[in-house]
UniProtKB/TrEMBL annotation:
Domain Mop: 290-357
UniProt name for this protein: Molybdenum ABC transporter ATP-binding protein ModC
NCBIfam families: modC_ABC, Mop, PRK11144.1
InterPro entries linked to this entry: AAA+_ATPase, ABC_transporter-like_ATP-bd, ABC_transporter-like_CS, Mo/tungstate-bd_C_term_dom, ModC_ABC_ATP-bd, Molybdenum_import_ModC, Mop_domain, P-loop_NTPase
GO molecular function, one term: molybdate ion transmembrane transporter activity
Length: 359
């Protein structure tokens, strides 16, 4: 595990972080501007020193105020990709990439440039590259340093939409193929949905909630941070089979619960992550018949949370081990006399697949 237990005064902001992060996949650090996201990864990298605490990556202790351990950045075995690529303008792409190499490994070099799609750029200089190409080179340079941990500070923030769309597939590939933990700072919900396995939400220098992205996304603490149109549930599912006639694929939440989604180019048994918007979920107490809704799940009410000022009710449903949120009117909740523990049916009007689930 990556252990972070630090305190640091940053002007009016008091950073007080206690975290245990996994040693694989992408962990997204999410929060508003000024919440302490970049301050956290600067402390991890050694660019900033905490007032007290402990930081370790596995068995590798980076900082311990009690034993007076404070490794300098160059000895932490951490790669850092900044918002801007920070390439050396007088080096070619190949020169920038090799700048980070601890030792010459032609096979590793070829693997990384192929994965990032920059093999055709090696003789060019940074001034001739697009923003997305520069960021891919910066990522390659960080990976070629053979880090134990990769930090990425909003790598898409300085790019326009076409460049973001250009870089995103490479980040998705990175998430699948790189076998080191990646801590990824972002304020973009879309990036979290497409890339993250683990998620940490911070506010005013403290951790609000942390865990697998599915559980954090559906946590009550997260819902006030999501715009109404973004309120949704994330569920992991396995691909089952394609419909014989229609362009649909059935995915399994568990042995008793299935969903139809737009046809996927996935093998049976592969994991995918599905997203269901809360406004697309309605509740009925009896099994619907002769309905146009294709996705109907048997569920049990786990939590009822009124949103009084909007005359709305947020209902959390339990479908096996998965959680599903529904937004309904207070009128409907009272008329149905919904109670925690009730067995109900969730009618789902829309389901989207966000990414492969790497968990």
């Amino acid at each position: 595990m990556i252990t972070i237990n630090v305190k640091k005064a940053l002007g009016a902001l008091q950073l007080n972080m206690q975290l245990e992060l996994p040693m694989q996949g992408i962990t997204a650090i999410f929060g508003r501007s000024g919440a302490g996201k970049t301050s956290l990864i600067n402390i991890l990298s050694g660019l900033s020193v905490p007032d007290s605490g402990v930081i370790s990556v596995g068995e590798h202790v980076l900082y311990n105020s009690e034993t007076q351990v404070n490794l300098p950045p160059e000895k932490r075995d951490i790669g850092y990709v900044f918002q801007d690529a920070r390439l050396f303008p007088h080096y070619t792409v190949a020169g920038n990439l090799r700048y980070g190499c601890k030792q010459d490994d032609p096979q590793q070099f070829t693997t990384i440039i192929t994965m990032l799609g920059i093999d055709h750029l090696l003789e060019r200089y940074p001034a001739s590259l697009s923003g997305g190409e520069k960021q891919r080179v910066a990522i390659g340079r960080a990976l070629l340093s053979n880090p134990d941990l990769l930090l990425m500070d909003e790598p898409l923030a300085s790019l326009d939409l076409p460049r973001k769309q250009e870089l995103m597939p490479y980040l998705e590939k990175l998430a699948k193929e790189v076998q080191i933990p990646i801590v990824y700072v972002t304020h973009s919900l879309d990036e979290i949905l497409r890339l993250a396995d683990h998620m940490v939400m911070i506010n005013q220098g403290e951790v609000v909630v942390s865990g697998h992205v599915n559980s954090v996304w559906g946590a009550p603490e997260m819902r006030p941070w999501l715009p109404a149109k973004e309120q949704s549930s994330l569920l992991s599912a396995r691909v089952n089979y394609d419909h014989a006639r229609y362009a649909l694929t059935q995915v399994m939440l568990n042995h008793d619960s299935f969903l139809w989604v737009n046809k996927l180019s996935r093998a049976r048994g592969e994991w995918v992550r599905v997203r269901i918007h809360s406004n697309d979920v309605s509740i009925t107490k009896v099994m619907p018949e002769q309905t146009s809704i294709r996705n109907i799940l048997s569920a049990r009410i786990d939590k009822i949370h009124p949103v009084d000022e909007q005359q709305k009710v947020e209902v959390r449903l339990r479908v096996g081990e998965a959680q599903l949120w529904a937004n309904i009117t207070l009128w409907a909740a009272e008329e149905l006399n919904l109670q925690v523990g009730d067995h109900v049916y969730a009618q789902i009007k829309g389901v989207s697949v966000t990414q492969d689930d790497l968990a």
